[in-house]
Amino acid sequence: MVGLLVTLSDRVRRAGPGRRESRDAGWTLIELLVVLSIIMILTSIGLVLYRNSVQSAKEAALRSNLFIMREAIDQHYADRGEYPDSLDALVSTSYLRAIPLDPITDSTTTWQTIPAPAEPGSLRTTAGIYDVKSGAQGTALDGTAYSDW
């Protein structure tokens, strides 16, 4: 018991108040691995959240662009009594400033147009564009296909 007290008092005297012994001065390998593991887990969670936020922003822009084009088609029909022949006709008649970009495909040429049903007794050979959809392949974050929007 006395030997233990002498050993403890020697350690305190050598280390001094507020000092640490040399063997307690660094981090152990296990402590470093635990810290690195926590950092890697938090980083991977952050990357997934970032990718999902970018994808959801693109999907929101796609929904907005589809809404704007559909409103322009409806306005064209209300004003002129016929559907536009193409998306370029909406631009040339000033219903749109420009054909919006499909944010999923990063192109203005991938829009899929749906022709209007032929009106009975009409002399027109083309019925015009009734609706527009995205030409993007794949599914959204909610599981629906872009081509169904």
Structure write-up:
The structure is a single chain. By secondary structure, the protein is mostly helical. It has one domain (29-137). It is built from three helices and two strands; from the N terminus they run αααββ. The chain has helices at residues 2-15, 29-80, 87-92; strands at 112-115, 129-133. It has a two-stranded antiparallel sheet with strand order 1-2. The chain is rod-shaped and about 95 Å long. The termini are far apart. The mean pLDDT is 85.
Question: What would the keywords be for this entry?
Answer:
149 residues; mainly alpha; 48% helix; 2 strands; two-stranded antiparallel ribbon
Tell me about the largest β-sheet. Answer: 2 strands, antiparallel
Q: How large is the share of residues in beta strands?
A: 5-15%
Strand order of the largest sheet: 1-2
What is the CA-CA span between the terminal residues? 82 Å
Strand segment tally: 2
Encode the helix/strand succession as letters.
HHHEE
Brief summary of the model shown:
It is built from three helices and two strands. It is mainly alpha-helical and 149 residues long.
SSE order and pairing:
Layout (H helix, E strand, L loop, with lengths): L1 H14 L13 H52 L6 H6 L19 E4 L13 E5 L16
Antiparallel strand pairs: 1-2
